[in-house]
Amino acid sequence: MKTSKIFATLAAATLLAGCASRPTPVPVIGPSSDLTALVGEWSGEYTSPETGRSGSIVFNLRAGRDTAVGSVVMVPRVTNAQVTPSMEVNQPVVRTGHAQASGDLITIRFVRVEGGHLVGTLDPYRDPDCGCHLTTTFHGAFTDAGTISGTFTSNGSSVGHVPSRGSWTVKRSAK
User: Fold this and answer.
1) What is the mean pLDDT of each run of 10 residues along the chain (175 residues)?
2) Which of 26, 47, 80, 131 lies at 20 to 30 Å from 90 by C-alpha?
3) Cα 55 versus chain centre, distance
4) Residues 28/107, Cβ–Cβ less than 8 Å
């Protein structure tokens, strides 16, 4: 099951990357020594047990630059599948609530790095469950193993939307 989830994540990322017209630059702010620690190609994943959603993260910062390229792919999930009888004899109809048809590409908007920690935000995006717009902030810390791990919080624009949380990890694949 985990292999198929990883494959689905990579397939969605590949398809969406092929559809993207041009990567949006992500401003990266911080002291030069801290920016140097972030140089390279990073990839990983995130998960939110609260929402049941997960996905992939890619981020690339070249040496001497103050902008990077990065995005998040939110992988679809199936929600509350119900089988109800149709008007045709012996032909059930399956309704799946608000499941996404395909992964959504979400752009990283901003990253600040300092003292082995980073914070950032994603561009606002549509919540596949409520249809409202979400804003997400993330925090992370560098580890000795060449990874960055952290948490994120997503807040909705609609009244009554409960903030959701999750965790993420990326690993440098090239410098």
Assistant:
1) 40 38 79 91 94 90 90 70 37 35 77 94 87 92 90 88 92 87
2) 80
3) 5
4) no
Structure tokens at 18: 């092929």
Question: In whole angstroms, how far apart are CA 111 and each of 49, 71, 162?
Answer: 24, 12, 25
Domain extents for the chain?
Answer: 2-174
Neighbours of 103 (CB within 10 A): 20
For 72, the enclosing helix (H) or strand (E) is: strand 67-75
Neighbouring residues of 104: CB distance < 8 A, sequence distance ≥ 6: 73, 74, 125, 126, 128
Q: Give the integer Cα–Cα distance in Å for 146 and 140.
A: 13
User: What CA–CA distance (Å, rounded) separates 170 from 153?
Assistant: 17
